[in-house]
Every structure is written in structure tokens, then in C-alpha cells.
Amino acid sequence: MIDYSKLRKVPLLRILFPFILGILFTSLFFFHIDCVIRFIYIVLFILLTASLIVLFINPREKIFDYLLFGLIFIIGMVYSHASLKTPSIEQKEKFYHGIVCEVPQLKKNSSCFAVQLDRNQFPDLTFQEPKMFLYTTRDSLLVDSVCIGKKIIFYGKLNPIKNLGNPGEFDFKKYLSTKYILFQSYVPLSRLDFSTTNHGFFLKRFASDVCKKIIHQLQNYSFNDNSFAILLALIAGNRDFISDDLEKSYVNAGVVHVLSVSGLHVGIIFMFLQVLLKFLDYHKRTRFFKVIFILLIIWIYALISGLSPSVMRAALMFSLITVGQSTQRDISPFNILALSALIMLIINPLQIYDVGFQLSYLAVFGILYFQPVFDSWFTAQNRVVDYVYKLFSVSLAAQLSTIPFILFYFNQFASYFWLANLLVIPLSFVILILAIIFICISGISAVSGLLGWVLNVSTYLMNSWIKLIEQIPGSVIHDIHFPGLFVVISFVFIFSLFSWIKKPQAIKLYFVLLSLSVFLLFGIFRNTQKINKNMVVVYNIPKYSSIAIYSDSLNCVIGNYEMHSVPGYVQEIYRRHRQIEDIDKKMEYYRLDSIFADSDSGFFNNQKSVSVITVGENSKIMFYPGNRFEKQIFDIKAEYLIVSGNKYPPSAPVFANSIILDSSNKMYIEQYWETYCRKWSKNIVIVRKQGAYKIEIDKI
User: Fold this and answer.
1) Could you tell me where the DSSP H helices lie in 533-602?
2) From start to end of 331-474, where are the E strands?
3) Higher pLDDT, 604 or 493
4) Whole-model pTM over 0.90
5) Left, alpha or beta for 411 (phi > 0: left; psi -120 to 50: alpha)?
6) What's the burial of 194, exposed, middle or buried (CB within 10 Å: 0-12/13-18/19+)?
7) How many whole angstroms separate alpha carbon 671 and alpha carbon 636?
8) Is 56 helix (H, G, I), strand (E, B) or coil?
9) Which of 573, 574, 401, 413 is nearest to 480 (CA)?
10) What is the mean pLDDT of the chain?
11) What pLDDT score was predicted for residue 529?
12) Which of 252, 331, 367, 451 is the most exposed place for a label (fewest CB within 10 A)?
């Protein structure tokens, strides 16, 4: 058993840990009943009173540790409950007003504005101000003219954000809810109006203006496309200009974090300033000036890069480190890490679900916990060897603490991340510092020309190194299915093992062997329980027909697109679903309007415009992609009829018991089919509304 009192040396961890548990507990068992909330407040009062009494009598009593744990746990529950509470909205059109809070975006078919709504319009909210995505007619002039801080008034209806409901898909609704983006709406231009003056969000608006000037300055120099994209990502965190192929290479090499302004970039600036201003450490007054200057530069950079959550986390952490160092006291880095996390969670407790938040804090924790152990294993006399080893050990330490979450969220592992980091980290340091200097002196043509050439060469070298790493056989291990239980077991194993290495004890070795045994046994159990399922899945892909067939004899996807033009996000949906179902066979793609009979497997029975899959011995599933109903559709007995491509229902009833409308059908067509199914007592599934529909069958 772990003694909670041993955490006295890092008291802020004693607060952070139960606070996080309270947030997680509340989100898992979200309370809607007011009497339960009142009960929590009573328990909170009792724990607070008991803690104060024990603290007054004897603060070293062990019971105080448990009371403190329970107290912070309840505070975390109550606080996160207020954040999780969503406002009630009227299901009718009305006037709403708010302020544009992000840079407007020009979409393929619309203009998009992120709007922070006025909290006074939602009397049941406590403290947060909900946000929404407001879509309107595509208008490039409007997008260019509207800036952050513009007040907007529109007449429309708020619609809750929904996921598509495909198996294993990214939970976009939950991701947006961590940023308090709860609604979306489409409003015609005639129903919205913008103010002529700006209201609020001054810092964000300033950061946006600075970012535009940086883009303009970089464009004035003859950087090649990839160099320009990398420089803009490093300086301002803007990845809009990075090609898909280049970004994929960085992902496969395991260094995609370089392309997002994060703790790495803030840390580079922090270390550069520490070295540059080291001469100010000798006097008290100059140390104070150094602290103020470093804090100013860090937060100016955070502002320029858009004040994203990842940058704010890093800026806060290094600000606390700077202040802590100025006191010349031995302050635990774990306390600084815990304090920054606690502040961020107080600002927004839902950040605990942000993948970037989790990975960034785990990476720093891993470096603080594991890297000293690695340093004790090897000491190099040669400076170059020592530098390479330390760079390797830091990368390995960060990876060790994040790898369970990486496997869980991304289902792949970059095998040569450590090799990529050997050149990427020092090069990114040089590129970032030189790029900032280039921006500052861009008016001096002679010096800026030389710096521009160096930046071009440096970014080309870094991109070439990444491409080289990606091409090494086995550079990426794809399709790793890593359940949540594996994440917990992995953390127990990793931290128990290193705790035992630092200070061997029997109890630690017991946890190492226990976690390893559970991991192996659970893996064996999953393999023995693996069942080859046969199923037909109608995916919810907006404006697409997308029907997958998984069986022992064939795995294929039937859709209204060519095999070579399947959208990337659609392929990701297929991949994640196959991973969940443990399907590792190669996928084939067919067009819905041209699927054919397979003479080898007899899988498809094509009858002009009607394609049939035989299910078992008697039942069938019909696909109907034709422009009109053929006569034979009334002669086929089937359990399911899948309709796509905006076909009106026939006048007579078909033999199918259930009608499935895929996402290629428009809303008015769905209404006709709803009327048809009510008339002829048929079951209807509208995939656009209900999400992906899965038909499990014993044998195809």
C-alpha cells in the first residue's frame, strides 16, 4: 500500500491528484439530480470542518492526509460539475448575440465564425460562457473584413454539436466541449449583422494582426513552400500551409510536436534567454530585471503564437520556473509542474480531456522522473557523446511516460523517434532563434538575406532528415489496438519498474511482476475470445454512400466514389473500426452503381440495378443505387433494403422488413420515406440522424 503522507515533499501533487480524480469521477457519473448536489455540499462542509479540526490539533496525523484527499476530491467534483453543465436552449428561432472569438475561416461551401455567446442569455449557467460555430453563405470578403472582437447579432436556432456516430471515430463533440464550444447553426447572411466597433478579445486580436504581419514578411522573402510552411509553424503555430505529405512524414517520424508551438518552442526561447542573460545573475537588482525580461519575452511569444492552450501551459510553467529560480531556493520541479497544471484546470477543468494537455504534462513528468535514472547509467567524458546521450535520454524519458496514451489515441508507434530527435531538436532550436531574429531585422536587406539563406538550408535539411527517417523499414507500426485497461496496466508496470530500479523493494517488484502478468494474461484472453464477426455496416459519411461488408471470405467497402479517391478522413473511419473489430484483412473498394457478381465467392448477386447479398440460407440484404425502382425489387424477399442516391419510395410495399437510408440521401427524401414506412408498417433507420448502423449476422 502506498503511504499518501510520503507526498509531503511535493504538497501540490497532494492537491492536484485528488482534484483530477474528482473531475474524472464527475464526468463519468454526471449528476443531474439537485438533491445529490446538495448532499455533496454537505459532505464538503463536513470534510472541511474535520480537516480544520485535525490540522489545529495535530497536522502530522495520518487521518489529515485522508481528509485532505477527500476534501480536494469533492471540490474537484463540485467544480467540474458546474463546468459540465450545459445550458438549456429553446427549440425555436430567436435573436442571439455574441462576440467573434477566433479568426474567421473560409470553408469549401460556407463561412465559419467561432462566436462566444453572451452568458446572460443562459440563466441556468454558473460561470462559463458557451461558444458556437456560426455558418453562413460563403463570402471571402466578409471573412476578410470580420476580425476577432466583432459583436455579432443573428436570428436562428442553436443546434447541439453531434458526432457522426461511426464506430471508433474521434469524439469531436467531447473535444469541442473542452473548449466550451457547444452549439452550431447555419444562418443566411440576411439574418446576421456585425457591429462597426470591436468588443473585447484585445490580446487575441493583437496576436492575429501580428501573425498576419509575420506571414507577410516571410512571403516577401523567396522561401520555398516547405520552408515557409515550417517557419510559420515554428514562429506562430500556423500549420495551414504545410502539405499533407510533409505533415504525414513528421507524424510517421514521431516529431509532429515540432510543427505545433508548444512547450518545446517556449523551452527553446527560455534556454536561449537563460544563456544570453547569464551575466545578470550576480546581483539582486539585475536578477530582478532578468526575471521581468524573460517573463515578458515568453508571454509576448505566447501572444504572437495565438495563445493556444499548449503555449499557455508552457508559458505558465516556464514563468513559474523563472520566478522559482529567482528566489534561489531549492524548489521541487514536480511542485512547479503540479502548480501549473492546477492553475490550468482551475481556469478550465475540462482541459483534463484534451490530448495535448495530457501528453504535454506526462512528457514533462517523464523527463523529471526518468531522465535522472538514465543519466546515472552512463557518464561520457567526450562532450559530443555526452550531448548525444542526454538528447537520447530526454527523448526516451518523454516517450516512456506518453507511449501508453500515444498507442491508445493514435494506434501507431514511431520506432525511430529517438533518431529523428537527434537532429530535429537542435535544428529546431537554431531555426526558431534565427527566424525570430529574421522577423525583427527584416528591414536590413543585407543581413536578412543571409539569414534567409541559412533558414532555407536549415529547414531543407530538417525536412530531408524527416523524409529519410520515414523511409527506413519499420519506421511506423500501424494498427495497434491498445484498450484503456492496457494504458492503466502499462503505467503501473513502467513506474513500478523504475521505482524499483531507483530503490529496490519487494513491494515494488511485486507490482512489476503483477502488472506484467495481468498484461500478458489479458492479451492471451483477448486472442482466445476473438470471434470472426460477419457484419454489414452503413457508415454515416455526410453526402456519401459508404457500406462495408466484413466476412470470412471478403472485406470490402461499397460507396459512391472511386477506389483511388476515397477521402482520407473516411479511410481513417474504416481503419479505426477494423481495429476495434480486430479485422486485419485487406480491404477492397467497389462503386455502388457497378458492383458485380463474384464467380469465386458468389458474394454478390447483381440484378440490373438491384444488388443483393445473401444472408444465411433464406434472408437477403438489398442495395439499391438505381435511379428508379426496377420491377425485380418487389420480387425479392429481404430483411433489409439500403437506399442511397435520393430515390423516392415506390407506390407499393417491398418485402424488406427494415429500410435503411444512408447519408447520401437529402432531408426531403428522408421525409418521404418516413411517410412510406408509417404507411406500410416498416422499420426505418436514417443514418444521418441516428449514426452508423451495424447489421451483425452469423454467416454471409
Assistant:
1) 568-580
2) 413-414
3) 493
4) no
5) left
6) middle
7) 25
8) helix
9) 413
10) 78
11) 56
12) 331
Interior angle at CA 335, CA 307 and CA 174, nearest 5 = 45
According to the model, what pLDDT value does residue 685 have?
92
Assigned C-alpha cell, 418? 529517438
Q: Which residues contact 418 (CB under 8 A, 6 or more apart)?
A: 392, 395, 396, 399
How many residues would you count in the chain? 700
Does residue 462 carry a pLDDT above 60? yes
User: Who has greater pLDDT, 196 or 585?
Assistant: 196
CA distance 697 to 616: 8
**What is the CB-side half-sphere exposure of residue 295 using CA atoms within 13 A?**
15
Phi/psi at 689 (5° precision): -90, -40
- Spatial distance between the Cα atoms of 364 and 635, rounded to a whole number of angstroms: 66
Which residues are CB-contacts of 623 (< 8 A; sequence separation ≥ 6)? Answer: 547, 558, 592, 595, 610, 611, 612, 613, 642, 644
CA 69 remoteness from chain centre: 30
Least confident interval from 82-96, 177-191, 665-679: 82-96
Q: What is the pLDDT of residue 112?
A: 92
pLDDT band, very low/low/confident/very high, at 556 (cuts 50, 70, 90): confident
CA distance 640 to 660: 7
Among 269-283, 422-436, 630-644, where is mean pLDDT lowest? 630-644
Cell for 408? 491508445
Q: Which percentage of the chain shows pLDDT scores above 90?
A: 4
**CA–CA separation, 345 and 198 (whole Å):** 29
What is the tens place of the pLDDT at every residue in 288-335?
888 888 888 888 888 777 677 777 888 888 888 888 777 766 677 888
Contact of 534 with 697, CB cutoff 8 Å: yes
Q: CA 371, CA 396: separation in Å to the nearest integer?
A: 8
Count CA atoms closer than 13 A to 416's CA, side-chain side: 21
Query: How far apart are the C-alpha atoms of 696 and 76, rounded to whole Å?
Result: 42
∠ CA 384-387-390, rounded to 5°: 150
